[in-house]
Amino acid sequence: MIYGIGTDICDVRRIRESLERHGDRFAEKVLAAGELAVWRERTERWPDRGLRYLATRFSAKEAFSKAVGLGMRMPMTWRHCEVAKLPSGQPVIVLHGALKAWFEERSLRAHLSVTDETDYAASFCVVERLEENQPPALTP
């Protein structure tokens, strides 16, 4: 059963402006530890890819927060919601801390799609409530 649906579009130029204004502090606020390492590596090698990586994570977390109906308030935090990927490349939500406990207590599973172009990153998230015999979500 569908619990919630969320979508978000992010202007990559706004993310660039935030990085210029706040430096790495902006990325450190938005990204979980694993994401931050990937962002730094990509930014060093391909600055534009690093920028789009940050924009897609920002967009995905916004879409997820809408799908669960919390917005950006506790237990939803930027760093407790991580966007990882399976070996196939499929993006997945990995939760931490109080957000993970909140999500599991409700027997929820998230499905995520992300995309980006030069100026925009977009995400779509569907959260479903698991039935008793449904398998849990895939994890990276």
UniProtKB/TrEMBL annotation:
Q: Which UniProt keywords apply?
A: Cytoplasm, Fatty acid biosynthesis, Fatty acid metabolism, Lipid biosynthesis, Lipid metabolism, Magnesium, Metal-binding, Transferase
- One MF term in GO for this entry? holo-[acyl-carrier-protein] synthase activity
Q: Which organism is it from?
A: Acidovorax temperans
The entry's family comment says:
Belongs to the P-Pant transferase superfamily. AcpS family.
Q: Provide the GO biological process annotations.
A: fatty acid biosynthetic process
The task this protein performs is described as: Transfers the 4'-phosphopantetheine moiety from coenzyme A to a Ser of acyl-carrier-protein.
Q: What is its EC number?
A: 2.7.8.7
Q: Which residues form the 4'-phosphopantetheinyl transferase domain?
A: 4-125
Q: Which reaction does it catalyse?
A: apo-[ACP] + CoA = holo-[ACP] + adenosine 3',5'-bisphosphate + H(+)
Q: Which residues bind Mg(2+)?
A: 8, 62
Cross-referenced NCBIfam families: acpS, pantethn_trn
Name the record gives this protein: Holo-[acyl-carrier-protein] synthase
Q: What does the UniProt entry say about where the protein is found?
A: Cytoplasm
Matching InterPro entries: 4-PPantetheinyl_Trfase_dom, 4-PPantetheinyl_Trfase_dom_sf, ACPS, Ppantetheine-prot_Trfase_dom
The UniProt entry's GO CC annotations, sorted and at most eight, read: cytoplasm
